[in-house]
Design goal:
By secondary structure, the chain is an alpha+beta fold. The protein has one domain: Endonuclease, Chain A (3-Layer(aba) Sandwich), CATH 3.40.960.10. It is built from five helices and four strands. It has a four-stranded mixed sheet with strand order 1-2-3-4, sandwiched between helices. A hairpin with a 4-residue loop joins strand 2 and strand 3. Helix 2 packs across helix 5. The protein is globular and about 35 Å long. It comes from Sphingomonas cavernae. Pfam families: DUF559. This is DUF559 domain-containing protein. InterPro entries: DUF559, Endonuclease_DUF559_bact, Restrct_endonuc-II-like.
Length: about 120
C-alpha cells in the first residue's frame, strides 16, 4: 500500500483544523451516520472535503473562489470519477441556507451508491 506523502497529510490536517462554517455545519450533521464519513481524505493528488469510503462518495463544498476554478474542478471531478468516486458538489451558501436539504441529498446519493456496488 502506498503511503500518503507527508505534505498531503499536513495539508489535510490544516484543512481539518481550519474548516469553513459550511464544512463544520455539514460535518456536524454527517458525522453520526454509519458507514462513516471522513473529513479531508487524500485521494491521489487531491484532498476531498468530506467522503464516505464505503460508497466511494465525495462531497465537495465550493466557495466563491470556485467560480474562477471551474476548469480545475472539472479536472478534479474527472480524476475522481476515473478512480470510481461519485462526486457531489454544493455551494457553501446552499449548505448554510438549507443544511437539512443538503444532508438529505447526500444520504440519498449514498444509498444509490451502496445499492449499485452490491
Amino acid at each position: 500500500m502506498r503511503r500518503i506523502p507527508a505534505h498531503m497529510t499536513a495539508n489535510a490536517r490544516a484543512l481539518r483544523n481550519g474548516q469553513t462554517l459550511a464544512e463544520r455545519l455539514l460535518w456536524h450533521r454527517l458525522s453520526g451516520y454509519r458507514p462513516r464519513f471522513t473529513r479531508q481524505l487524500v485521494v491521489g493528488p487531491y484532498i476531498l472535503d468530506i467522503a464516505c469510503r464505503t460508497a466511494n462518495l465525495a462531497i465537495e463544498l465550493d466557495g466563491s473562489q470556485h467560480v474562477e476554478a471551474a476548469g480545475y474542478d472539472a479536472d478534479r471531478t474527472a480524476f475522481l470519477e476515473q478512480h470510481g468516486w461519485v462526486v457531489l458538489r454544493f455551494w457553501n451558501g446552499e449548505v448554510l441556507e438549507n443544511p437539512e436539504g443538503v444532508v438529505e441529498a447526500i444520504v440519498n446519493k449514498f444509498a444509490e451508491c451502496v445499492v449499485a456496488t452490491r
